[in-house]
Amino acid sequence: MNLLNVKSVDKSYGGVIANHDVSLNVPEGKIVGIIGPNGSGKTTLFNSIVGHHPIDSGEINFDGKEISSLTIPKIARLGMLRTFQQTHIYGKMTCVQNMQISSDIDANWKRIFNPFSKEVDEMVDELLAFVGLYKKRFLLAGDLSFGQQKLLEFAMSLMKKPKMLLLDEPTAGVNPTLINGLIDRLRQVNEEKGITLLVIEHNMRVVMNLAEHIYCLANGTMLADGKPDEIQNDKRVIDAYLGN
Amino acid sequence: MMKENKQNTLIWLGLAISAIVPLLLPNHITVLTYIWVMIILALTWDMLGGQTGYTSFGNILFFGVGMYVCAVVQRDMFSSGLERFERVSEIVVNLSVSEYFISLAIGTISGAIVAVILAIILGSGILGMRGHYFAICTLGLGHAAAEITSGIEYLGAGSGMVAPLYPSEFLMGKEVFYYYSFLLVAVATFFLFKKIYKSQFGLALNAIRDNENKAESMGIHTTQYKIAGWSISAFFLAIAGAGVGNVIGFIDPVEIAFSGPTFGVWMIVMAILGGKGTIWGPVLGAIILYSAKETFWTYLLGWDKVALGLLILIVVVYFPKGILGYFKDKKQLSDSVLSPKGEG
Ligand SMILES: Nc1ncnc2c1ncn2[C@@H]1O[C@H](COP(=O)(O)OP(=O)(O)OP(=O)(O)O)[C@@H](O)[C@H]1O
Ligand SMILES: [Mg+2]
Questions:
Q1: pTM value?
Q2: Phi/psi-derived region of residue B165, left when phi > 0, alpha when psi is between -120 and 50, beta in every other case
Q3: What mean pLDDT is predicted for residues B108-121?
Q4: Residue of the nearest CA to atom 29 in ligand 1?
Q5: Considering the domain boundaries, does residue B238 fall inside one?
Q6: pLDDT digits 0-9 by tens, B170-225
Q7: Does the N terminus or the C terminus of chain A have fewer Cβ atoms within 10 A?
């Protein structure tokens, strides 16, 4: 079953056609990758999916619902979260607070004027340990390194127990020795928590390792898709990367 | 935590002094009353302005609305004095002790409710906008309210209204009664806001301040939180307005109720002076600014506005994060050197 279904999506910024006739499917429980040269429209596609901007035409279906006209918070609450290429964290709040506020506060809005529950705090500690930030938990998130902020943002999205995560270049800026650990964690999240992943990634080693299916965007259109080894040997893909 | 204990001791000590101060300084009771008013003003402004990072120049609206709604209820609840006078602004109603306090209570609560409704309606319209656009939209709120009120004869139009006479037969004098009333409201506001800032709601406000796009993408309905925050502010501001109308005894749309250049600006300056985005900052700022203003007024007659302006300038230039922000930064420096918290 497809958890996410994108059909013929068009999106342009003024004169720039960022996405043209883009379609892709993400089956439930799988890890799917998106690659493509800089400026090929990958982030734009994420923005379209999560409701950051209205699309010009096409359909986006998530978990059996048409979502292309819903707002960002509504889509997030359906269980689809994204992380950003440039990290988005709450800089003047501690790591713990960043995590706490990422729990589903509206689910129990009657307690909104209470402090966070013990369950939330336990989950915070567990997830911070999971991404290796437990020792940094009382630091201001803004004082973390870029790579640590990426890990924090990843952990924050797990607080919401999403059905699906859209990760925009999760390993960019992360120190090479930490990348292997991050790959393991992404896989662990996928296998143990059953979270479906859609990952934009420039690092070929990472995406070939992680994804079961890969889409390649170039100049705003879907150039090719297939299994990692198929994509790796696809002449159009190689040309797109070298040509740019 | 030891720090919390120390803080509580300080709070209780401060309250004990505040409780007896009118007995010690009976001549300064009005000034002291206004310090409590200023604390309420600064605290309520800071909920959006500091904690959420949404600068509002229009909060004075809620202050004035509370003042007017309360005045109307006090005037009309036990007598329909309107017919007996040519001009509304000349109506002075004489109430018995129980009538006075009942109409005051109901008037204050009505004012607060009307202000909350206004905050919800206005907020739904303009709090969907981001920071600066919201700030610009709030610029004209106070002025517009003053203009509208000046055109309504039922509210005394441009000449304003007179508050009912304080019942002289009541065992407590007017000044003393309002001093303790404002002390109570300010303390209640302080503790409630303190609790709010420690809650999930408070952290949501901070998240909006730090990165609203992120908060939205994490499913937080940011506009609803902003509206809720503004409504809470409006509630307490309106209560303050209702009381101030009675303390002054006379309400005027431009100079008092919707007075941007005084109350409207002060609430912002006080919060920033003390340190916005903290619970103690607005309190500290209110005490310092209002004391300074009174001192300047007493000793520098004629030059008081210049002195006040100078003080504000010094703060903005040398303490952009406010007094508390300045010390917090210093402390953080020494903390990061001394405490093992970061490694723990
Ligand atoms: N907000 C915007 N306004 C105008 N043009 C934009 C905007 N965002 C993206 N673009 C343009 O759309 C095109 C696609 O950009 P996008 O960010 O989606 O690329 P990308 O594939 O994510 O690239 P990268 O690998 O560098 O992150 C680019 O030409 C970019 O300049
Ligand atoms: Mg991108």
A1: 0.89
A2: beta
A3: 98
A4: A39
A5: yes
A6: 888 999 999 999 999 999 999 999 999 999 999 999 999 999 999 999 989 999 99
A7: N
Structural domain of B276: 29-343
Q: Give residues (CB < 6 A) around ligand 1.
A: A 13, 16, 18, 36, 38-44, 85
Residue ID of nearest Cα to ligand 1 atom 31 = A39
ipTM: 0.87
CA pair distance B12, B2, nearest whole angstrom: 16
- DSSP letters, B47-73, are IIIIIS----S-THHHHHHHHHHHHHH
Nearest CB to B214 within list A89, A92, A135: A89
The reply to whether B56 falls in a domain is yes
In a domain, B12, yes or no: no
What's the domain count of chain A?
1
Cα gap B168→B97, rounded to integer Å: 8
Q: What is the pLDDT, as a whole number, of residue B1?
A: 45
pLDDT recorded at residue B336: 53
